[in-house]
Design brief:
The structure is a homodimer. Chain A is α/β, with parallel strands linked by helices. Chain A has helices spanning 33-44, 61-78, 94-104, 118-127, 245-250, 260-275, 278-298, 325-337, 362-379; strands spanning 22-23, 84-90, 110-114, 132-137, 161-166, 169-170, 175-176, 188-191, 208-212, 222-228, 317-320, 340-341, 352-355. In chain A, strand 3, helix 4 and strand 4 form a beta-alpha-beta unit. Chains A, B: Keywords: Amino-acid biosynthesis, Aminotransferase, Cytoplasm, Pyridoxal phosphate, Pyridoxine biosynthesis, Serine biosynthesis, Transferase.
Chain lengths: 380, 380
């Protein structure tokens, strides 16, 4: 074999060894320190059965206990109403752009979608492959913001729409919905990938929620679906079994071998959230981090700009920019030399972005703000 | 939160602490000791960029280098012809039961399938949802065995079949195909989940191969597809992007966030195989393990029976049984007390089964044979 072992990534050390480094990536994102510290033993240490967690059969008692624990812990965190089911499925959120119409259209051919930015448009693009899509809301003119949801704001949802889809937190655009629309009898379906578990959530407002794991749940390659019982009855029998929410619900997410190690890690993250005080505590910490960063940006006299309209600013994907794209690039490159990584904005949106999910400590935000202040002093 | 942390699985310690325990599960299966020893640091240790491998963005240089390494290493192990592509996809093998017809039917509506046991029948069941299925071969009468492939054995593959599907190693039935059929111009497509990387394989005989990772590749939640270029041209544009082999090939398996940690682990396994001498070395070790176990069974004077016809015995899923199902259950329970786990056969097949994938050392087979000899002395 001519290939050498894969080289370790070449990483510049941060200038002071004592100074920690932070990844502000939008995802895969940072895991909680405490989870990372336990993960090696939790997944890879062999037990008296000659197997580590990652090696145990998904049909065995040990994995089934972990799966039940993950499901029950998540239900407790969400205060889940009794008529909802939790599914753990391999793969990310994007597959659900297709699985939603495949599972939920039922006798209808129509689905309604709100356009609030890059990811909702990706969902719309995939939705068109399966359904007649009605785009029922678009972003307002002016600063990036979520569509208007006030009474009389003109949401015209077709009565035959099987569901209405929206993206409450637009990861790329840094836009969060301040309020949800009234969709009447049409079930609200939401891609909550980047805001799931970042704050309390009234599940009963939704027919279905889905989230990729790689922000606040765990590793990439897992997604969580929370679905109201009655929507499971719409599934067509010819749907591929692993892609059927109804079949997955009936078989406790084990239609086929599930991503067992990813679910084990998710269980550790759910435990960590519970130990820290649940979703209210996550929301308080996330609000404090966002206030610190947006507050500094707003007080920078225009050196830094947060372009999103204030009432729609995402608390977890903080978008900002400097005077021009050249300055943005200089900023991101200098930040890396200070141990602050992955601050470039989404390629389709540009500028800069700091993702501050649950696992980002305030010390990371402090380090970023300190660098931003220093950069401004030198360049302002 | 009322829930306590998930309890560690209750495992009886093996009687002598010095005696190692082994899982003979069909999957998720044992990982190589050397991979398990490195995995914690490889995935969970933070680097100078403030991120561990499991936390790094899939768009970054570090993950892209790992992905390229995994792809190139696997291509080298397979001696992959230049006109084949390797895809890493989230989820297991079963999704491909549906993705195959979705991707490969092209203008045809027909696909041919060989029935050789439980898993090929599962593929057929899902195939029917998308295609007109022609079952072109069935198991022979008598002992479990693969369909006859000798010239004149009556394979009647419709000329308009988009592909012919078979399962060269039936994990549940313990049946391996001794030879492949001649399918003429119809591309041969194979579910190689339980035999992939266990021995050299002439990829050029196949149009497409797919395998779930949880046997010889790595953790559950990842699958590998090896596909000939020309078959990618059949994909319909309305296919969901993450499910399109063509789109995944064009975007190097990164249409959506891939299961980055699982791919990282797979790269470690591929390295381990290469370091041990590649697929010829795996085949030699697997043949020695199988010979030891089947040899003992055959020499047991009928106390143990290996029911599969000799020329079709799987070298990696060794099926055997005792006089009756009660004895099988006693055997499996006593084996656990000796540190030998997951020896029950697949529920649909019954009996006993020892899975001996690449990572099972000969010491595990020795421990099993020692126990079998002891059990026979006491019960025979």
């Amino acid at each position: 074999m001519a290939l050498a072992a894969v080289p370790a990534p070449v990483l510049r050390p941060s200038p002071a060894a004592a100074e920690p480094a932070y990844s502000f990536a939008a995802g895969p994102a940072r895991l909680p320190d405490a989870v990372l510290a336990r993960a090696g033993e939790a997944l890879f240490a062999r037990g008296g059965d000659g197997a580590a967690a990652i090696e145990r059969p998904f049909t065995g008692d040990a994995f089934r206990a972990t799966l039940a624990h993950a499901r029950e812990r998540l239900a407790a965190l969400l205060a889940l109403p009794a008529n909802y089911r939790i599914l753990f499925m391999a793969g990310g959120a994007m597959q659900h752009f297709s699985l939603l119409p495949m599972n939920l259209l039922g006798a209808s051919r129509r689905a309604a979608y709100a356009d609030s930015g890059y990811w909702s448009r990706r969902a719309i693009d995939e939705g068109w492959k399966q359904a007649a899509v009605s785009v029922v809301a678009t972003p307002p003119a002016g600063a990036p913001a979520a569509p208007d949801v006030s009474p009389g704001s003109g949401w015209d949802i077709p009565a035959d729409a099987a569901y209405c889809h929206l993206t409450p937190n637009e990861t790329a655009d840094g836009v969060a919905w301040a309020a949800l629309p009234d969709t009447g009898a049409v079930p609200l379906v939401a891609d909550v990938t980047s805001c799931f578990l970042a704050a309390p959530l009234d599940v009963s407002r939704f027919g279905l929620l889905y989230a990729g794991a790689q922000k606040n749940i765990g590793p990439a390659g897992l997604s969580v679906v929370v679905v109201r019982d009655d929507l499971l009855e719409r599934a067509r029998p010819e749907l591929p079994a692993p892609f059927s929410y109804a079949v997955q619900a009936a078989q406790d997410s084990c239609v086929t071998t599930p991503p067992t190690a990813a679910i084990q890690l998710a269980a550790l993250v759910f435990d960590w959230i519970a130990e820290r005080g649940g979703l209210p505590a996550m929301a308080a910490a996330n609000a404090a981090k966002a206030a610190r960063l947006y507050g500094f940006i707003d007080a920078s006299g225009g050196f830094y700009t947060a372009p999103v309209r204030r009432d729609c600013r995402s608390p977890v994907n903080v978008r900002f920019h400097l005077a021009d794209s050249v300055q943005d690039a200089v900023f991101a490159a200098e930040a890396e030399r200070r141990g602050l990584f992955h601050l470039r904005g989404h390629p389709r949106v540009g500028g800069l972005r700091a993702s501050l999910y649950n696992a980002m400590p305030m010390t990371g935000v402090d380090a970023l703000v300190d660098f931003m202040a220093d950069f401004m002093r030198r360049r302002g």
